[in-house]
Protein backbone atom coordinates (compact mmCIF):
# COMPACT_ATOMS: atom_id res chain seq x y z
CA UNK A 1 0.00 0.00 0.00
CA UNK A 2 1.62 3.21 -1.21
CA UNK A 3 1.70 6.46 0.73
CA UNK A 4 -0.92 9.01 -0.33
CA UNK A 5 0.12 11.31 -3.17
CA UNK A 6 -1.23 14.27 -1.19
CA UNK A 7 1.04 13.42 1.73
CA UNK A 8 4.03 13.06 -0.60
CA UNK A 9 3.19 16.37 -2.27
CA UNK A 10 2.85 18.16 1.08
CA UNK A 11 6.12 16.61 2.28
CA UNK A 12 7.96 17.81 -0.81
CA UNK A 13 6.57 21.33 -0.44
CA UNK A 14 7.57 21.53 3.24
CA UNK A 15 11.01 20.00 2.69
CA UNK A 16 11.70 22.25 -0.30
CA UNK A 17 10.63 25.33 1.69
CA UNK A 18 13.04 24.40 4.48
CA UNK A 19 15.92 23.88 2.05
CA UNK A 20 15.18 27.08 0.12
CA UNK A 21 15.01 29.08 3.34
CA UNK A 22 18.52 28.03 4.37
CA UNK A 23 19.80 28.36 0.78
CA UNK A 24 18.42 31.92 0.60
CA UNK A 25 20.28 32.81 3.80
CA UNK A 26 23.48 31.47 2.23
CA UNK A 27 22.98 33.56 -0.92
CA UNK A 28 22.28 36.65 1.22
CA UNK A 29 25.45 36.06 3.24
CA UNK A 30 27.50 35.69 0.04
CA UNK A 31 26.05 38.97 -1.26
CA UNK A 32 27.13 40.70 1.96
CA UNK A 33 30.52 38.95 2.01
CA UNK A 34 32.56 41.66 0.26
CA UNK A 35 31.17 44.43 2.48
CA UNK A 36 32.01 42.61 5.73
CA UNK A 37 35.30 43.23 7.57
CA UNK A 38 37.82 40.41 7.99
CA UNK A 39 36.61 39.78 11.53
CA UNK A 40 32.91 39.74 12.39
CA UNK A 41 30.59 38.63 15.16
CA UNK A 42 29.71 34.97 14.56
CA UNK A 43 28.14 33.73 17.81
CA UNK A 44 25.62 35.07 20.31
CA UNK A 45 25.10 34.92 24.06
CA UNK A 46 21.77 34.32 25.76
CA UNK A 47 20.62 37.90 25.20
CA UNK A 48 21.35 37.80 21.46
CA UNK A 49 24.47 40.02 21.59
CA UNK A 50 27.67 38.91 19.87
CA UNK A 51 30.02 37.10 22.24
CA UNK A 52 32.52 35.77 19.66
CA UNK A 53 34.29 37.88 17.03
CA UNK A 54 36.38 35.94 14.54
CA UNK A 55 37.25 35.48 10.88
CA UNK A 56 34.23 35.94 8.64
CA UNK A 57 34.78 32.44 7.23
CA UNK A 58 33.04 31.22 10.40
CA UNK A 59 29.94 33.05 9.20
CA UNK A 60 29.24 29.87 7.23
CA UNK A 61 28.79 27.92 10.48
CA UNK A 62 24.95 28.05 10.53
CA UNK A 63 24.86 26.90 6.89
CA UNK A 64 27.19 23.96 7.58
CA UNK A 65 25.28 22.76 10.64
CA UNK A 66 21.94 23.47 8.96
CA UNK A 67 23.10 21.45 5.96
CA UNK A 68 23.94 18.53 8.25
CA UNK A 69 20.40 18.67 9.67
CA UNK A 70 18.93 18.69 6.17
CA UNK A 71 21.06 15.71 5.13
CA UNK A 72 20.08 13.75 8.23
CA UNK A 73 16.36 14.47 7.81
CA UNK A 74 16.58 13.61 4.09
CA UNK A 75 18.04 10.17 4.89
CA UNK A 76 15.42 9.61 7.60
CA UNK A 77 12.64 10.67 5.19
CA UNK A 78 13.81 8.15 2.61
CA UNK A 79 13.84 5.34 5.16
CA UNK A 80 10.35 6.29 6.38
CA UNK A 81 8.99 6.34 2.83
CA UNK A 82 10.63 3.14 1.60
CA UNK A 83 10.78 0.88 4.66
CA UNK A 84 8.23 -0.48 7.09
CA UNK A 85 8.67 0.55 10.71
CA UNK A 86 8.49 -3.01 12.02
CA UNK A 87 5.73 -2.06 14.45
CA UNK A 88 2.84 -4.49 14.91
CA UNK A 89 0.29 -2.41 13.02
CA UNK A 90 -2.37 -3.09 10.42
CA UNK A 91 -1.53 -2.13 6.86
CA UNK A 92 -3.56 1.07 7.17
CA UNK A 93 -2.04 1.83 10.57
CA UNK A 94 1.47 1.37 9.19
CA UNK A 95 0.71 3.77 6.34
CA UNK A 96 -0.82 6.39 8.67
CA UNK A 97 2.06 6.17 11.12
CA UNK A 98 4.70 6.60 8.41
CA UNK A 99 2.78 9.53 6.88
CA UNK A 100 2.54 11.26 10.27
CA UNK A 101 6.21 10.63 10.99
CA UNK A 102 7.23 11.98 7.59
CA UNK A 103 5.37 15.26 8.11
CA UNK A 104 6.56 15.55 11.70
CA UNK A 105 10.17 15.32 10.51
CA UNK A 106 9.48 18.17 8.09
CA UNK A 107 8.30 20.35 10.97
CA UNK A 108 11.43 19.48 12.97
CA UNK A 109 13.51 20.51 9.96
CA UNK A 110 11.54 23.76 9.73
CA UNK A 111 12.51 24.61 13.32
CA UNK A 112 16.23 24.05 12.70
CA UNK A 113 16.19 25.84 9.32
CA UNK A 114 14.41 28.84 10.85
CA UNK A 115 16.91 29.12 13.70
CA UNK A 116 19.94 28.88 11.40
CA UNK A 117 18.40 31.29 8.88
CA UNK A 118 17.82 33.95 11.56
CA UNK A 119 21.32 33.30 12.88
CA UNK A 120 22.82 33.76 9.41
CA UNK A 121 20.83 36.96 8.84
CA UNK A 122 22.18 38.52 12.03
CA UNK A 123 25.74 37.54 11.09
CA UNK A 124 25.36 38.92 7.55
CA UNK A 125 23.93 42.23 8.80
CA UNK A 126 26.09 42.27 11.96
CA UNK A 127 23.09 42.98 14.16
CA UNK A 128 22.15 41.27 17.46
CA UNK A 129 20.06 38.13 17.20
CA UNK A 130 16.40 38.79 17.97
CA UNK A 131 15.93 36.03 20.53
CA UNK A 132 12.25 36.89 21.00
CA UNK A 133 11.67 36.34 17.28
CA UNK A 134 13.56 33.04 17.38
CA UNK A 135 11.47 31.78 20.29
CA UNK A 136 8.29 33.05 18.64
CA UNK A 137 9.08 31.21 15.40
CA UNK A 138 9.67 27.99 17.35
CA UNK A 139 6.58 27.98 19.57
CA UNK A 140 3.94 26.93 17.03
CA UNK A 141 6.14 24.36 15.18
CA UNK A 142 7.19 22.86 18.52
CA UNK A 143 3.54 22.53 19.54
CA UNK A 144 2.83 20.85 16.17
CA UNK A 145 5.66 18.37 16.79
CA UNK A 146 4.28 17.52 20.24
CA UNK A 147 0.76 17.08 18.85
CA UNK A 148 2.21 14.99 16.01
CA UNK A 149 3.86 12.64 18.49
CA UNK A 150 0.58 12.30 20.38
CA UNK A 151 -1.25 11.51 17.11
CA UNK A 152 1.36 8.86 16.29
CA UNK A 153 0.88 7.23 19.70
CA UNK A 154 -2.90 7.20 19.15
CA UNK A 155 -2.39 5.69 15.68
CA UNK A 156 -0.26 2.90 17.15
CA UNK A 157 -2.87 2.08 19.78
CA UNK A 158 -5.84 2.17 17.39
CA UNK A 159 -4.26 0.13 14.61
CA UNK A 160 -2.18 -2.36 16.57
CA UNK A 161 -2.40 -5.96 15.38
CA UNK A 162 -3.92 -8.20 18.04
CA UNK A 163 -3.53 -11.65 16.54
CA UNK A 164 -1.23 -11.43 13.57
CA UNK A 165 2.51 -10.95 13.87
CA UNK A 166 4.44 -8.84 11.43
CA UNK A 167 8.07 -9.54 10.80
CA UNK A 168 10.27 -6.84 12.29
CA UNK A 169 12.32 -5.07 9.63
CA UNK A 170 14.45 -3.10 12.07
CA UNK A 171 13.89 0.19 10.22
CA UNK A 172 13.28 2.20 13.39
CA UNK A 173 16.40 0.63 14.89
CA UNK A 174 18.46 1.74 11.89
CA UNK A 175 16.95 5.25 11.93
CA UNK A 176 17.73 5.65 15.66
CA UNK A 177 21.29 4.43 15.15
CA UNK A 178 21.84 6.74 12.16
CA UNK A 179 20.38 9.79 13.92
CA UNK A 180 22.39 9.21 17.11
CA UNK A 181 25.71 8.90 15.30
CA UNK A 182 24.96 11.85 12.99
CA UNK A 183 24.27 14.03 16.04
CA UNK A 184 27.48 12.81 17.66
CA UNK A 185 29.53 13.50 14.53
CA UNK A 186 27.87 16.92 14.24
CA UNK A 187 28.98 17.63 17.80
CA UNK A 188 32.56 16.79 16.79
CA UNK A 189 32.24 19.21 13.85
CA UNK A 190 31.09 21.92 16.28
CA UNK A 191 34.06 21.15 18.53
CA UNK A 192 36.54 21.37 15.64
CA UNK A 193 35.00 24.65 14.46
CA UNK A 194 35.32 26.17 17.94
CA UNK A 195 38.89 24.96 18.31
CA UNK A 196 39.86 26.52 14.97
CA UNK A 197 38.63 30.00 15.89
CA UNK A 198 41.61 32.30 16.34
CA UNK A 199 39.77 34.50 18.82
CA UNK A 200 39.24 31.54 21.18
CA UNK A 201 42.85 30.41 21.46
CA UNK A 202 43.94 33.02 24.03
CA UNK A 203 40.82 33.38 26.13
CA UNK A 204 38.01 31.47 27.76
CA UNK A 205 34.88 30.23 26.01
CA UNK A 206 31.37 31.34 26.91
CA UNK A 207 29.23 28.41 28.11
CA UNK A 208 25.59 29.35 27.65
CA UNK A 209 24.40 26.60 30.01
CA UNK A 210 26.35 28.11 32.92
CA UNK A 211 26.20 31.74 31.72
CA UNK A 212 29.93 32.06 32.39
CA UNK A 213 33.28 32.11 30.63
CA UNK A 214 35.23 28.92 31.34
CA UNK A 215 38.32 27.17 30.01
CA UNK A 216 37.50 26.09 26.45
CA UNK A 217 39.02 22.66 27.12
CA UNK A 218 35.92 21.91 29.18
CA UNK A 219 34.13 21.60 25.84
CA UNK A 220 35.85 18.22 25.53
CA UNK A 221 33.86 16.91 28.51
CA UNK A 222 30.37 16.76 26.92
CA UNK A 223 31.85 15.43 23.66
CA UNK A 224 33.70 12.62 25.46
CA UNK A 225 30.55 11.81 27.44
CA UNK A 226 28.49 11.79 24.23
CA UNK A 227 30.83 9.38 22.42
CA UNK A 228 31.03 7.11 25.48
CA UNK A 229 27.26 7.09 26.08
CA UNK A 230 26.41 6.43 22.43
CA UNK A 231 29.11 3.74 22.16
CA UNK A 232 27.85 1.92 25.27
CA UNK A 233 24.26 2.12 24.03
CA UNK A 234 25.42 0.80 20.65
CA UNK A 235 27.06 -2.23 22.29
CA UNK A 236 23.94 -2.95 24.36
CA UNK A 237 21.77 -2.55 21.25
CA UNK A 238 23.88 -4.94 19.15
CA UNK A 239 23.87 -7.61 21.86
CA UNK A 240 20.13 -7.19 22.38
CA UNK A 241 19.52 -7.70 18.65
CA UNK A 242 21.58 -10.90 18.70
CA UNK A 243 19.71 -12.12 21.78
CA UNK A 244 16.35 -11.27 20.13
CA UNK A 245 15.23 -8.96 22.95
CA UNK A 246 13.19 -6.26 21.17
CA UNK A 247 12.31 -4.39 24.38
CA UNK A 248 15.99 -3.99 25.26
CA UNK A 249 16.79 -2.98 21.66
CA UNK A 250 14.11 -0.28 21.83
CA UNK A 251 15.41 0.99 25.18
CA UNK A 252 19.03 1.11 23.96
CA UNK A 253 18.04 2.90 20.74
CA UNK A 254 16.04 5.54 22.62
CA UNK A 255 18.86 6.11 25.11
CA UNK A 256 21.36 6.39 22.27
CA UNK A 257 19.20 8.92 20.44
CA UNK A 258 18.55 10.97 23.58
CA UNK A 259 22.27 11.01 24.45
CA UNK A 260 23.24 12.15 20.96
CA UNK A 261 20.60 14.90 20.94
CA UNK A 262 21.26 16.07 24.50
CA UNK A 263 25.03 16.43 24.15
CA UNK A 264 24.74 18.04 20.71
CA UNK A 265 22.41 20.68 22.16
CA UNK A 266 24.77 21.18 25.12
CA UNK A 267 27.69 21.87 22.76
CA UNK A 268 25.63 24.04 20.42
CA UNK A 269 24.53 26.17 23.38
CA UNK A 270 28.17 26.72 24.43
User: Biggest sheet, in brief?
Assistant: 2 strands, antiparallel
Number of strands: 4
Mean pLDDT: 78
Query: Which sequence of strands runs across the widest sheet?
Result: 1-2
* Spatial shape: globular
Order of helices and strands: HEEHHHHEEHH
What's the helical proportion of residues?
Answer: 55-70%
Q: Any idea what the radius of gyration is?
A: 21 Å
Q: How many helical stretches?
A: 7
Question: Low-confidence parts lasting 5 or more residues at pLDDT below 50?
Answer: none
Task: Tally the structural domains.
Answer: 2
Structural class: mainly alpha
Descriptive overview:
The chain has 270 residues and is mainly α. The chain folds into 2 domains: 1-169, no CATH class; 170-270, no CATH class. The chain is built from 7 helices and 4 strands. It has helices spanning 5-33, 61-82, 91-125, 131-158, 171-196, 220-242, 246-269; strands at 39-44, 50-55, 205-207, 212-214. The strands form 2 sheets. The protein has a two-stranded antiparallel sheet with strand order 1-2. A two-stranded antiparallel ribbon has the order 3-4. α2 packs antiparallel against α3 (91-125), α5 runs antiparallel to α6 (220-242) and α6 (220-242) runs antiparallel to α7 (246-269). The protein is globular. The model has no long low-confidence stretch (mean pLDDT 78).
Amino acid sequence: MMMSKKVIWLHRVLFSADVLMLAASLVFFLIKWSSLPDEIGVHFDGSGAFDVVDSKIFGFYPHVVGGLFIAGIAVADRLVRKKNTGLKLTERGELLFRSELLLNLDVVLFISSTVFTLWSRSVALQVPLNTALVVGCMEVPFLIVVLGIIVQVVTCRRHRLKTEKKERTGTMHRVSRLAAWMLTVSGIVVLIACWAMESLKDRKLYFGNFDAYLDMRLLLVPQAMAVAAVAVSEIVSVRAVKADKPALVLLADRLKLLCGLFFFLVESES
